[in-house]
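[worker-b] picked up task from shared queue
[worker-b] task type: protein-ligand structure
[worker-b] ligand name resolved to S-adenosylmethionine; SMILES cross-checked against name lookup, match
[worker-b] sequence length check passed
[worker-b] input payload:
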Amino acid sequence: MFVLILLIITRKYCLFKKRLGGGVMNEKDMFESNRAAWNQATEYHQKARGNSLKAGFENPDFTTFDRDCDDVLISKLNQIDFNGRTISQMPCNNGRELLSLMKFGAKEAIGFDISDAAVAEARQLAERAKLNAKFVRTNILEIGEEYNGRFDFIYISEGSLQWFSNLNAYFSVVGRLLKQGGSVLIFEIHPFAYFFETGFDPEKQSLNDFPSYFKKGPFGYKDGLDYVGGVSYEAKECYWFMHTMSDIFTAVLKCDIEITAFDEYNLEMANHLEAEMYSKFPLSYILTGQKKGKVF
Ligand SMILES: C[S@@+](CC[C@H](N)C(=O)[O-])C[C@H]1O[C@@H](n2cnc3c(N)ncnc32)[C@H](O)[C@@H]1O
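[worker-b] inference finished, payload out:
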């Protein structure tokens, strides 16, 4: 009887910790949950966008770098010589950014993403755009060795790093895939902005309600990922992590990438942070780096 009670209590505790992501949920389950959540979200994104991307990419001048925050990105991209280069984005979602990036002159692009639905859409868009882009469905951490040293340029954009608990593991893949002298550009949501994603409401709460900057997560999220149409739906749970700026710098430097520039902006990227108080914080950043070796 005692053993039975002990077993029940242990099981309840494990389920509780699993729900919280408190070290019991293994990484494989977490990645599969995130894959399912992104497959589901893609359907909502497609509904919200209708035919706009498919029709848009039939026009050779079409780009999705048309948001207010994209001006700073474009000015960085204009300084890079893409001619004849092979580029990548990881993760690439439905490929819209990688295809837009190809218009800067790259000869070939390969995007990687865990979502089956997003990759299927990316392949259709590449066909419409008649661009030499290939898309691979995979967990970034499992990208095969055949891609080692394959890329001159790797692009990482908003909402990418949060899916990885261990940035050293993530950036070791970036370092492995870059050619010597190849470069990386990260245009990401600033860790400060992620604070507000943890449910902080400036109308109702004070700064004392902030989680610690050093709290990593995982944060379980079930409110849906439709940042395109803004529809709430019964969502599959996904798990994400917060990283400090020093986590990001350390992980980049560890994989032999020299940081060539780092700029912080008050530009809102994806979180719809409209309250006046947000103008006081850095909300996005661009970090560029170059893999040590011959100059790109
Ligand atoms: C917010 S998007 C980032 C890309 C782009 N900035 C965008 O907004 O579409 C997040 C993407 O990360 C992908 N993702 C999450 N975890 C991943 C993993 N472990 N490996 C590869 N892709 C992953 C999701 O499928 C999703 O397409």
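[worker-b] attaching auto-annotations
[worker-b] The pocket of S-adenosylmethionine is lined by residues 31, 34, 38, 91, 93, 97, 113-115, 118, 139-140, 157-160, 163 (CB under 6 Å).
[worker-b] releasing lock
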